[in-house]
Specification:
By secondary structure, this protein is of the alpha+beta class. The chain folds into 2 domains: 166 residues, 2-Layer Sandwich (Beta-Lactamase); 55 residues, Winged helix-like DNA-binding domain superfamily/Winged helix DNA-binding domain (Arc Repressor Mutant, subunit A, Orthogonal Bundle), CATH 1.10.10.10. It has 12 helices and 5 strands. Strands 2-1-5-4-3 form a 5-stranded antiparallel sheet, with helices on both faces. Helix 10 packs across helix 11 and helix 11 crosses helix 12.
């Protein structure tokens, strides 16, 4: 995989306008990352007992029925981790054995689901986005290589979730966007350029703590959980160019 190919995937998935285009970009990114199968799910909780699910994946046909069985989801230790936690999980046979689901791993391994990485983003408004990649061979032994895979997947998920909810659950456009102050917009603009909060504070001649406060205010006003998602939403709303 190359950084250029993966970065292209971030932009491409944001430009997707249909479920088919979205699926194509998700699958392409997973393959560039070195994984044969992938699944992405956007969930909207309308109440405790009523949730709306939108899933795209390239699951083998012979395994699709099991893969989409909600009863299996309740037993799958990886799915349960993603439901409750915001940190990624790197899983293998040991994950399922320790979770009392060794037989489940044996079954899915025959379809190529031997190891993988999965994560979930839990967003405001009862929205959740999960992303998982799987393959039939072990992950790299070098910790740095594994860390890079996880980081690339996390960054892609931030871009993909924005496209997923726009495609699967569009909302009516408002005539006005959130009212961000000039300083909040400036902090977001430098964040878009890859600057850290300390660097943003130095450039804007303010304390790092104040820069963080501007970014947090922006995230709150835009309904985002991190500064990268806030940048993406500000771009989509035309607040940044």
């Amino acid at each position: 995989m190359t950084a250029r190919m993966l970065q292209g995937g971030y932009l491409a998935v944001m430009e997707a306008t249909t479920p088919l285009e979205f699926r194509m970009e998700v699958v392409r990114f997973a393959e560039d990352l070195g994984f044969k199968t992938v699944s992405a799910m956007a969930v909207i909780d309308h109440s405790q007992s009523n949730s709306e699910f939108h899933t795209v994946d390239n699951t083998p046909a012979a395994f699709a029925q099991t893969f989409h069985d909600e009863h299996v989801w309740h037993l799958d230790p990886v799915m349960q981790h993603c439901k409750r936690a915001a940190v990624p999980i790197i899983w293998d046979q040991g994950t399922y054995v320790s979770g009392g689901q060794g037989a489940m791993w044996e079954h899915q391994a025959s379809f190529g689901y031997q190891t993988g990485v999965a994560l979930a983003l839990h967003l405001p408004g009862g929205k959740h986005f999960s992303l998982g990649v799987e393959r039939d061979r072990p992950l790299p032994r070098q910790p740095r290589a594994v860390t890079r895979i996880v980081a690339e997947l996390q960054l892609f998920a931030v871009h993909a979730q924005d496209a997923a909810f726009r495609i699967f659950a569009p909302v009516a456009k408002t005539t006005e966007g959130p009212a961000l102050t000039p300083r909040e917009l400036e902090a977001l603009r430098w964040t878009m350029e890859g600057k850290t909060a300390w660097e943003v504070g130095t450039i804007m001649n303010i304390a790092e703590r104040t820069a963080v406060l501007h970014l947090q205010n922006s995230m709150h006003k835009l309904g985002c959980v991190n500064k990268h998602q806030a940048v993406l939403k500000a771009l989509r709303l035309g607040l940044l160019t």
